[in-house]
Protein 1
Amino acid sequence: MTDIALADLAAALGLELVGDGAIRIRRPAHPAEAGPDDLAVAMDRRYGDALSAGRARAAILWPGADPAEHGLDAALLAPRPRYAMAGLTAHFAPPTEAAPGVHPSAVIDPSAELGRAASVGPLAVIGPGARVGAGAVVLAHASLGAQAEIGSGTVLHSGARVGARCRLGARVLVHPNAVIGADGFSFTTAEPGAVEAAKARGAVDTPSDAGHVRIHSLGAVAIGDDVEIGAGATIDRGTLRDTVVGAGTKIDNQVQVGHNVRIGRDCLICAQVGLAGSAEIGDRVVLGGKVGVADNIRIGEDSVVAGASAVGSHVPARSVMMGVPAMPRDRFRRLHMALGRLPRMMERLAAAEPGKP
Amino acid sequence: MTDIALADLAAALGLELVGDGAIRIRRPAHPAEAGPDDLAVAMDRRYGDALSAGRARAAILWPGADPAEHGLDAALLAPRPRYAMAGLTAHFAPPTEAAPGVHPSAVIDPSAELGRAASVGPLAVIGPGARVGAGAVVLAHASLGAQAEIGSGTVLHSGARVGARCRLGARVLVHPNAVIGADGFSFTTAEPGAVEAAKARGAVDTPSDAGHVRIHSLGAVAIGDDVEIGAGATIDRGTLRDTVVGAGTKIDNQVQVGHNVRIGRDCLICAQVGLAGSAEIGDRVVLGGKVGVADNIRIGEDSVVAGASAVGSHVPARSVMMGVPAMPRDRFRRLHMALGRLPRMMERLAAAEPGKP
Amino acid sequence: MTDIALADLAAALGLELVGDGAIRIRRPAHPAEAGPDDLAVAMDRRYGDALSAGRARAAILWPGADPAEHGLDAALLAPRPRYAMAGLTAHFAPPTEAAPGVHPSAVIDPSAELGRAASVGPLAVIGPGARVGAGAVVLAHASLGAQAEIGSGTVLHSGARVGARCRLGARVLVHPNAVIGADGFSFTTAEPGAVEAAKARGAVDTPSDAGHVRIHSLGAVAIGDDVEIGAGATIDRGTLRDTVVGAGTKIDNQVQVGHNVRIGRDCLICAQVGLAGSAEIGDRVVLGGKVGVADNIRIGEDSVVAGASAVGSHVPARSVMMGVPAMPRDRFRRLHMALGRLPRMMERLAAAEPGKP
């Protein structure tokens, strides 16, 4: 968070420097808001006007841009803007809000193990037999259940809950109020119930009057290295085995992961996605915001499902899916376009068939 | 959690035993992962190969199965697999992670009443006049508001919030970070606003510039016996009366229940369902994941609504509904099939009418 | 919460009184449940029968109603029922559950500043350099991060999280377990990934094997005066600038607001709405429950989007939108009606073309 010479920043990010590398940079900023000590971030030509309106002396620009043309003394040139943003924001990101050591108000069971340089914030709770890895951080009001385990460098943000016996790898980020390891939602009845009737016969002709009996969750949740779990997300335990999230997978806010779900490596699961029980998501799958996946459905690796789609049947690898219910994107577009032309076609047909409704 | 002889387990679950009942079982397990002390769970023929690959000596199988054929010394036979799972997992479920008594770090108002054998975990908060039933458990970081009440055997998991004056019955399970008794979302304006204009005339021709005025929630939330409320679920208070959840109803993670909603008994409300204000859900209704129900809508008893549907008009009892907007399942399928054939039909018509667009 | 003479209540609410103004009112109540000390709330003729069945002596009725006809001694007449409800419920709303002063179990950094008459509840956490406005209330288990700031009269309900450097205006209500200021969900890869391939070519032909690299959130969240944030809602920080919520905007439970989003003034954002990164929502926009808005999409001022719609392209001001994907309401209705007639039309065409599939 201290300032840095533009030439040093160029070297750190592996970007081409044009102009005065001695300019010192305090922080990156939106071009319209950037002051003389800021690096204006304008990696697309459409920000040109905003740049001229701002007061920055230096900017990060698109390849081939000329800083002088925008009234700048220097620039970094970024051939792949989002990747440059990753490096740039990593350089200037504030450290996690964690004081070293254990806050005196935290409640830590004597049988818990804390790794070297772990940090436990105010009013956090660490249960019996729990293990906190080296350099891991448990922030205010977070809780780690009995025999649960978090790896080195993992961060539990404020109010995050990790249930008993769940295991998180290294460098996992669990955002505020996320819940890992709640019980699965799994019930049955002594006699066949309404859902079974509806599935079998399409009608509810034999309403069950029996109450729901609970299927308990004996498994836990196992999360690989370098995973993120968004604020308010919930991941349920498995019934007999663990619910699994593969290494490198990023899960956004308010995502729901049901019991027994298995998510592969390096997936992107956007906000408010819901994965019903026993769904299987392959490696590198991308699910857009609000996607729903029905229980026991498999989505093959490298598939992409557009936001707001509902997946009700298996999806082969490398598919691009869209719609409610989800179908291949090309088919969705064809149907949607045909539907758009339908009212006019019906009018034409009606005109050709006078007297018909 | 100690081991049990297979014969005793058969008796406890009411299942037929075939083979050596003296084998001692430590836990149920997935057939591929089951060791010699585990009971492999394989109640469907498709698990046959996994069984042969595992090391289990005993399994729970489908009716008519022969344990010897799968290299087993004994088996339980389950005519209704999910019901057997309920009994089996209940037998082996670990106890709630609650130490007896009141943790010294909990903050309990002197005017609160704790029932016999109630347990209050670290850093929990119990407000003035609140009542905790016999054997009830309030886990770490959970809070119970002023004059709120939970029945005997009810469990508030970590971070669960129960607002002032809300009342929960016996044996209710409130999962981590669920919120019962937030204020309803109810606003008005001094003059008619955009929504009223849109509903009345389909256009927003008189934008209101008045601010929103709050309608306060004077009611609370009343929850019957044997209800479950999932992790991160939210249930708002009523305006004049209580919002109500009937006995035996199970609510999954991240479900939103608006103000004045009345949910009947023994319903299943799957994850991420949203019930807008004053919706009424009859007894034994099943709502699939992500279903939305508009405000003031009634869904009749024993109805089933498929996941990802949006219900915008009243639903008669015993209906099976699907779609956005939701319609009877048979109609949905008919329309969906017709839509699928539409592009080809349009091509045929275009071919028959050369020169028309 | 003490009782009030009906004549005084009429004066306070600016409503016409008919009959005995000396009757003392203890609380407003549903007409069927109202006792002799209650004010039955029956501002629509359809409550007439419920009124007659109840035991109320006074009611709030529709304009022109005659209290005697319903067995009442007096009535207030409300020309705009919901607006009358706002005044009525405000009068009888219980005060926030906050004791004056700072609870001894709260953990407050010595560098934090508390305004005059601020209240901090049990086990709340206030971080270094944080500022709490005059009369603001931080309830049990809520947390306020380093250098964060809440204005005068603002209330953080139980378990609410406000991250470092976030700024909330005056009279903001943050409901239980809401999260303001989690990190944005923003990742990239060194080489183009599956989403880019899918967008460009509609197929995932070059699966990336590179891991996701994080774009950090250097911005915070800025929230105007008189905003409400619902239970379990999540609002992420911006990348370079703050994520912004304009004054007077009301956000319901379980709403997700992505990084860099800008929401205008006086909007109503209903439950479970999801706004993807960099979406821009104009002033006075109303988004129904479960609406999704894709990233970088703009919705013009005074627009209304019906519940369960998915907005994937820009929306002009004053639009009324509906559907997945969202389209103008009239167009949605026309398409939906045409689709409903499609199966029968196909049958007719098939009958006219024997031999064709």
Protein 2
Amino acid sequence: MQLAFSAADIAAIVHPKSIKGTTSETIRDLAALRAAKPGDLSFLGNPKYKTEVAATTASVVLLPLDYVGEPSPGQQFLFVEKPSVALAHVCARIEQLLWPKPAAGIHPTAVIATGARIAPSATIGPFCVIEEGATIGERTHVQAQAFIGRNASIGSDCWLMPRVTVTTECVVRDRVRLQPGVVVGADGFGYEFVAGRHEKVPQVGNVVIENDVEIGANSTLDRARFSQTVVGEGTKIDNLVQIAHNVRIGRHCLICSQAGISGSTTVEDYVVLGGQAGLAGHLTVGKGSKIDGQSGINTDLAPGSFMKGTPALPYNLEQRINVLRKRIPELFKRVDSLEAELSGLKKPSAP
Amino acid sequence: MQLAFSAADIAAIVHPKSIKGTTSETIRDLAALRAAKPGDLSFLGNPKYKTEVAATTASVVLLPLDYVGEPSPGQQFLFVEKPSVALAHVCARIEQLLWPKPAAGIHPTAVIATGARIAPSATIGPFCVIEEGATIGERTHVQAQAFIGRNASIGSDCWLMPRVTVTTECVVRDRVRLQPGVVVGADGFGYEFVAGRHEKVPQVGNVVIENDVEIGANSTLDRARFSQTVVGEGTKIDNLVQIAHNVRIGRHCLICSQAGISGSTTVEDYVVLGGQAGLAGHLTVGKGSKIDGQSGINTDLAPGSFMKGTPALPYNLEQRINVLRKRIPELFKRVDSLEAELSGLKKPSAP
Amino acid sequence: MQLAFSAADIAAIVHPKSIKGTTSETIRDLAALRAAKPGDLSFLGNPKYKTEVAATTASVVLLPLDYVGEPSPGQQFLFVEKPSVALAHVCARIEQLLWPKPAAGIHPTAVIATGARIAPSATIGPFCVIEEGATIGERTHVQAQAFIGRNASIGSDCWLMPRVTVTTECVVRDRVRLQPGVVVGADGFGYEFVAGRHEKVPQVGNVVIENDVEIGANSTLDRARFSQTVVGEGTKIDNLVQIAHNVRIGRHCLICSQAGISGSTTVEDYVVLGGQAGLAGHLTVGKGSKIDGQSGINTDLAPGSFMKGTPALPYNLEQRINVLRKRIPELFKRVDSLEAELSGLKKPSAP
């Protein structure tokens, strides 16, 4: 997408504390410092790239307040508290251009049950199916090809992208964004072993997604065996994540891609779960814990834990073991030598 | 969902061996012992919660035959062989209320090829696409937005939830339940490296899903390069699982979430594969083997194996190594000390 | 599917260098050497199965030029450069029978925005949604229930299988095959932590899929924070793979199932990433590197690296450590013994 912001437009979005230099270029794109050319907006998000600022040919650069340096001719520096946050505000403006707010209303192809209640300001896209008793809140956008089951409830100001499924009785509160292909409310994986066969335990609870949650593409959240599977307010879940039945995730957690949380585990507020990490079932992961990518957790964790490995150990211990691990072949040789030497020490006394 | 069972309704479902106490409460919900309040049905599924029975205020409690204790006033105990199985039977009744059997028939929006054969008692939901030569069996429910490819065959009493895909020539037998987003019959991942490029090996076999299989949300099963990829009778597969081309899974296996099985591997009957576990290609995993979560298997396994780790070792050995692993830093120090001491022992003889 | 090739039909497809024997059987199926019966085509793809050729009852067998042996009566041997490539050519012919080229045109149920441009030779299936400004190239087949967002561009000769999503502004070039449920252009996972909450960083870049790429079922590719997420020409991606925002994958890579690549990582040409492997963010994986299944990479890799484990080590070192790992319990005992012996050696001198 071709942008067309003036430097003044950018300043009006990011509210700089101070400005150095001027540019008459139209801002047509965003780029990293090194890749930027005239007509680009760039930013210093990570201090390790500080030396790239002097050489960048970006027309406008977002910089932290403590950056020391002068713009080139025809270049403008905007000094802000946090350049990455300022950039996010510019991106939010661009996002509105990429996805303009659709008109309210129900696409004529959508199949809406008589007893479903759709807020007048909501937008329902083509080929959506909304069953009996389901409700869709004000200004919510159900984009296309979504399935909303019986008595499911979607709050206001949500955005359900194409091909989202929210099944019977599940609850999605306000300002929730569900990426394409998300499944909220698949059956939990529960069976009783009876006479040599796995007999299904019907899963009759639901899923509750609290305010301001975002869930990534093709992630799956299982309905509770009974009662609820819960994702707390403000938690962000990446793509291809599995949340099993009766899991309770707290507020403001980050769950990275392809992580999995097994049944009935509780994750407290502000936990960060790295990509491809796995939590066993029936655990509690304490508030603010961080779990490194690919780690496997099979015990409760105290608040503030920082864990790594499978089975996971405290991060620093795991790192130390990983350094020593490379020297295990050498360690075996050293023990061989010790044994040989000791055996040599004992022998001389024999003859 | 608000339930309305009498205590007598519950007893009629679970057929208790004996009953203690009476309650006039209407059962409106299910709850764990500790969370339950009057109007709830609860159960003692795991003996470790036995002490919670005396304190629960659930109106009806399902208990094992050997439980010793008396109900509170207004509370009823139902004694059954296996409380968790009894609860599953109650849940099965609730499931029928949550998902009432739909009327037979084809939704007017569905696109059904002239040559497709749909049993008169089947239900085809909105926006389904059923291609030429496909067949749908008696009482099968294809819920919404499903795609059934040319000559694919779905048996009787199946439930295909929203957005399921079953591609050309694939076979799904009877009483199979496919959760939302399942893909049966994607192309296997096969290429020949020719002149610096990966040339596709067309995948012209199919997938066969035997009776009573269940497959979780967004799981993917690849069609065979030629011949068949097979999932055996009664096997249950969780969400986001990958089954590669020409895999053969036996009967009554449990494959947990995010596990992956590489091409041409055979998994015999009654195998349990933990979450995020991976099997390399062209292996045989013997009958009744158990593989712990996140494990990686790259050799054949004898029947009854119990494995853990990557690459996996017998469970008890892996557990023992995991205990010792934490002490590896200490072990290096001990070897340092031994070397120093031994060197000290040898020196004194010098002067 | 029942085939009906004559031996001459097979020869016309594979162009054998030489032929031994004749058969009058109609070829009705493909089978491995051991499983084949009269009427089957088989092949010797892997030399380790060479001894099975003499016993096979396949009617036609594809063999390498250096195979020494005679066909049975009524059996035909076709000698070719690479039997597995020859088989792939036969499979390509069968593929055309399984999925005959659909007629050009737009299914009457598809919802196509006025400003979308669909090539006259393209095929758009039922329930597809194609938004304003999107373009679909010549002979491309968008099979069913796909979603193509605003200004997205799909090249020529592509095949988008059922339920594929390509969001706003994303670019798919020519001869790309997207398996069912693929999501191209979900939001990248980016947040700024502000006042105790994760504030979304809008993701306003796109995804570019170059020529001849194939992407497996339910895989997800995130749009860039800004600029582009790129998959290079000829790269093949398996099912349930996660490609994060701003990742750049080179040409002719193989990314196996359930692998994940974190944000801003660059994967150079001809890299092979094993199943369930994970790459951390902001890395460069050098050209031609191979990464074993389930490995975790958290450092840059030089071209031609061959890595295994988490965190990954050079393959041979990791293999050696894995052999020694089983002996760690024994190693602890040996160090215990050494300490005891050394302590014994020192004591005698005391009295």
